[in-house]
């Protein structure tokens, strides 16, 4: 799937966002290695710590559907500046993605930049436990 097609899916997911407090809507489209796409949107809560980012929403949906091999994620935001995933999203994605995993980050004008996981998270938190179990 091309980057523009994946960004279109992320922009469509952004329309489903629940963002009454910040007004900042985010949509994500996660491309799995099997070719399927799982979308997510941000879901705010008055207790901001309980807010779910669009990227985490998409990853959790994918995992709940039995998908654990991801190729790239497109992120579309409602702001003029290109939106990037937060640290928590990067960490969750690193649990399942490889170093060549791509982030396609866009703004509300359709402008975008691409990064690999290793560029956005060069010194990630990893554990040997993952290698020692069958979970990874």
Describe the protein:
The chain is α+β, with helices and mostly antiparallel strands and 136 residues long. It has one domain (3-132): Cytidine Deaminase, domain 2. The protein has five helices and five strands; from the N terminus they run αββαβαββαα. It has helices spanning 3-14, 54-64, 87-96, 117-120, 128-132; strands spanning 26-32, 37-41, 70-77, 102-106, 112-116. The protein has a five-stranded mixed sheet with strand order 2-1-3-4-5. The protein is globular, with a radius of gyration of 14 Å. The protein starts with a helix and ends with a helix.
Keywords for this entry:
5 strands
In short:
The protein has 136 residues and is α+β, with helices and mostly antiparallel strands.
The fourth-level CATH homologous superfamily is: Cytidine Deaminase, domain 2
What would you call the structural class? alpha+beta
CATH class: Alpha Beta
Judging by the overall fold, what is the CATH architecture?
3-Layer(aba) Sandwich
Q: Any low-confidence stretches, pLDDT <50, length ≥5? A: 132-136
């Amino acid at each position: 799937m091309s980057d523009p097609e994946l960004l279109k899916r992320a922009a469509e997911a952004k329309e489903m966002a629940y963002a009454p407090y910040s007004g900042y809507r985010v949509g994500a489209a996660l491309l799995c290695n099997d070719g399927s796409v799982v979308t997510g949107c941000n879901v705010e809560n008055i207790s901001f710590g309980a807010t779910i980012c669009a990227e985490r929403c998409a990853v959790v949906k994918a995992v709940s559907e039995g998908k654990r091999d991801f190729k790239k994620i497109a992120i579309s935001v409602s702001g003029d500046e290109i939106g990037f995933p937060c640290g928590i999203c990067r960490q969750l994605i690193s649990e399942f993605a490889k170093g060549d995993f791509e982030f396609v980050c866009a703004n509300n004008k359709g402008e975008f930049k691409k990064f690999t996981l290793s560029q956005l998270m060069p010194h990630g938190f990893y554990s040997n436990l993952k290698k020692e179990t069958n979970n990874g």
